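Cross-check.
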Amino acid sequence: MQSFIFQDDESIATFIKPVENYLDRLHKHSTRNSGKNVFTKLYESLTWPRLLSYAAIKILKNKGAYTAGVDGITRGYFMRTFEYQIQQIRSLIVQGYNPEAVMRVYIPKRNGDKRPLGIPVLQDRIIQEAIRMILEAIYEPHFAEGSHGFRIGRSTRDCQKDCFAFLQARK
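Predicted model, tokenized:
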């Protein structure tokens, strides 16, 4: 696998372009064949090193990536051993993926209480991100226009605006 994690943004963009093309094809197929979609080899696509690398880039850019899970693998170690880690994740998927235990920590609330927070290992976060990217490409075209929950480019503010416009139209 080509090493790219420490190169410039342009080389990363070139590396992940085939993944974006694949996700675009899934999206277009889902849109064209609404109601009769048959997608094959989705689990196999999870073993594609470029898809896993793209998912890893997204996860490692996140501030939460600095917190190790129960396996103790930190963001720094993961990045130093990036190609090895991607191959390990690929092997986990091929052998039959089972998520690791989640590390439980308690974070303070404003009222003085503590709230539990589960921190998955980086490998699990990356696999979950790869799955999310694939499923989002397939299902996003089928959501109702007025649906706002956890969608690309949609926010609570957008939902409020739509609700306000709906209520104004009823007057």
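The longest strand covers residues 103-108. Helices lie at 9-32, 42-45, 49-61, 75-80, 82-96, 122-139, 156-169. Passed to J.P. for a second look.
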